[in-house]
Design goal:
single chain; mainly alpha
């Protein structure tokens, strides 16, 4: 029975994650195009996208490489962009932390914005799910995205600059994050963190090497944490 229910949760996760392929395909293709324009060959591009497997960090690192940014700044920037994965992991630990080590290692590699967004909503909606069911759902949610992301990157690297600008593939990046962030703006701390990060990023847009984004991210996290503390104290006082 456990295997059957886990399988059903896998397919539920698969269905919930499938809509993201409509942004993963142009997003991955765009990265492949940018990578070849930046001078990476097919092998380098595919190794980059397969090992890092983090679209936003890949774009950030690639842009900085094109700008001849010092290696240390590139590494720090890519890590900072991916710092949200540490927060995702901390958020998922209560639900997946009891899984075997090899499953947690696979989940760490497959933790992306889409798999986290689908999974955390599902886990909060059905708190009685078992660990195998949660892991099955998590893997299912990222299964339609992973192979298509890698294939789309390869397609973009092969086609390169032959893709016309009129296709406007760069729409995929903001659309992806808007689609994921919107449903998660459920509490005041979430909204405060987002607003502060937006304002600070606009104020620091002129700082070299995109360091303004790092400052904005830190400011947003601190503002969100303070807003959550304030909300908890107010709740305790009432």
């Amino acid at each position: 029975m456990a295997d059957t229910t886990s399988k059903s949760y896998f397919w539920k996760g698969f269905r919930d994650g499938t809509p993201f392929i409509f942004v993963a395909i142009p997003f991955g293709t765009l990265f492949g195009v940018f990578a070849t324009e930046a001078g990476l060959n097919i092998v380098q591009t595919m190794a980059f996208t397969s090992t890092v497997f983090a679209g936003a960090a890949q774009f950030a690192a690639l842009q900085l490489l094109q700008d001849q940014t010092p290696t240390a700044i590139i590494l720090v920037s890519a890590l900072a962009v991916n710092l949200r994965m540490a927060m995702y992991s901390a958020s998922l630990t209560p639900y997946l932390g009891a899984a075997p080590m090899w499953q947690r290692a696979c989940a760490a590699y497959l933790t992306v914005d889409q798999s986290y967004a689908c999974s955390i909503v599902q886990f909060e909606k059905e708190p009685r799910m078992t660990v195998p069911q949660r892991m099955a759902y998590f893997v299912g949610s990222v299964t339609p995205i992973t192979p298509l992301w890698i294939f789309a990157t390869y397609l973009g690297a092969i086609l390169g600059t032959r893709i016309p600008d009129s296709w406007a593939l760069d729409f995929a990046l903001p659309i992806t994050f808007l689609a994921m962030i919107g449903p998660m703006m459920r509490t005041l701390p979430h909204v405060v963190a987002a607003l502060v990060a937006i304002v600070v990023s606009l104020m620091t847009a002129g700082i070299p090497y995109n360091l303004g984004l790092l400052i904005a991210g830190c400011a947003g996290m601190m503002a969100g944490a303070q807003a959550e503390l304030f909300a908890e104290r107010r709740k305790a006082a009432s």
